[in-house]
Design goal:
This protein folds into two domains: 87 residues, PH-domain like (Roll), CATH 2.30.29; 57 residues, DNA Binding (I), subunit A. 21% of the residues lie in helices and 36% in strands. The strands form two sheets. It has a seven-stranded antiparallel β-sheet with strand order 4-3-2-1-7-6-5, with helices on one face. Strands 8-9 form a two-stranded antiparallel ribbon. Bound molecules: zinc ion.
């Protein structure tokens, strides 16, 4: 996205505008201007928020381009920046990312193991342990700490026969 923009720099004399264009790509944010232009890689951008309909605030760890910009549609601009950041941080995975999975993540397993004290919750056995979905995955049970328990192989098989 490229949009005409005004960058506001807070100087001692007060907020001072620079006219230019704001460009958001999948790698960086650039302010293209005769004076006081610059660019920041997305990895250094912390967030963008819209202060009002035409003002977006870009915060970054590099001081160079942090600050307020006047743009035609601040909400749209801040959403674009936010989306670019999420993709850059791999928060939005390109595929399957948000779909529920039968796979139990390692951090869930370690939390369940600690909570259940390394023993089958049915009989207390501490060998042949398996991670069991309390509500089966096939019935919509999630792979979360609240829906996973430790069962020994024998109890898991017995449960399988019941369910
Ligand atoms: Zn058991």
């Amino acid at each position: 996205m490229v949009a005409g923009a005004t960058r506001w720099r807070d100087l001692q004399a007060g907020p001072t505008p620079s006219q230019g264009q704001l460009a958001i790509t999948n790698r960086k944010i650039r302010f293209i201007a005769q004076q006081h232009g610059g660019e920041i890689p997305l990895s250094k951008v912390q967030r963008a928020s819209y202060l009002d309909r035409t003002t977006v605030l870009i915060e970054s760890t590099a001081r160079s381009l942090s600050g307020r910009f006047s743009v035609p549609d601040a909400e749209y601009t801040s959403i674009l920046v936010d989306t670019a950041l999420r993709i850059d941080r791999r928060i939005l995975l390109p595929d399957n990312g948000d779909r529920p999975s039968r796979h139990i993540p390692a951090h869930v397993k370690s939390a369940v193991y600690r909570r259940d004290r390394g023993a089958c919750v049915e009989c207390g056995a501490n060998s042949y342990l398996e991670y069991d979905h309390i509500i089966p995955f096939s019935r919509g049970g999630a792979s979360t700490e609240g829906n996973v328990q430790l069962l020994c192989r024998a109890c898991n098989l017995a449960k399988g026969a019941r369910v």
